[in-house]
Design goal:
There is one protein chain. Helix content is 31%, strand content 25%. The radius of gyration is 17 Å and the shape is globular. A hairpin with a 2-residue loop joins strand 3 and strand 4. It is an alpha+beta fold.
């Protein structure tokens, strides 16, 4: 099993703690993901983060809408933003929404939303099927939902390192390669084996390092 880090080594930023507080009591499975999840497992803040990734399932969209009443929440449509009214969002292509606390200001129609304007929330909708988290549909890659998250120093359910790395393998941005090097030593043999097998299905240059 992947290892956690002592809570005393990590100070949870205020805006991250606020989103965790908002999600407390959410009536469906959820987790924190992205860069903050990476840093939680590493045990320190390694870089700046533009927003906080909250991972939910597409069929829980109505619960998400209720949970963020009082927030300004938008989704991207044709390179611009529209106010989200709680409709189902299936991945892909409309797989996420952005939010900030309502400030009585109009939201920008431009696609880019910046944390300096309060857009700290990024809710990403995922798929599940028969108790399995569907990480990829073509080719099919799944993992039981209860194996995809664990509590972390963020004081919330958090995506486990091997699943984080599977998602990061899709984009292969510079920060994703850096996260791979930082997280790989935290994976036990079974987590490495799962990630290696998952990446074999999709084909990926990280396979050589995983097999070392």
């Amino acid at each position: 099993m992947s290892t956690s880090v002592p809570q005393s080594n990590f100070i949870v930023p205020e805006h991250v703690a606020h989103i965790v507080d908002v999600m407390t009591g959410f009536p469906a499975p959820w987790a924190l993901g992205g860069g903050w999840a990476v840093d939680a497992w590493i045990g320190e803040v390694t870089r700046e983060h533009g927003d906080v990734d909250v991972i939910v399932f597409a069929d829980d969209h109505e619960a998400v809408f209720e949970q963020f009443r009082g927030w300004q929440v938008v989704h991207h449509v044709d390179d611009r933003n529209e106010l989200w009214q709680g409709q189902r969002i299936d991945p892909p292509p409309l797989d996420h929404i952005h939010g900030r606390l309502e400030r009585g200001e109009p939201f920008p129609e431009r696609e880019a939303l910046w944390a300096t304007e309060g857009w700290h929330l990024d809710v990403q909708f995922n798929q599940r099927r028969d108790g399995q988290w569907v990480l990829s549909t073509e080719p099919l890659v799944t993992l039981p939902v209860d194996q995809c998250t664990r509590p972390s120093v963020l004081r919330a359910p958090t995506i486990v390192p091997e699943v984080l790395l599977f998602y990061k393998a899709i984009d292969m941005r510079r920060r994703d390669r850096q996260d791979f090097k930082r997280l790989l030593p935290l994976l036990g043999s079974s987590e490495r084996a799962w990630l290696r097998d998952a990446l074999i299905r999709v084909g990926h240059p990280w396979l050589a390092e995983l097999s070392a």
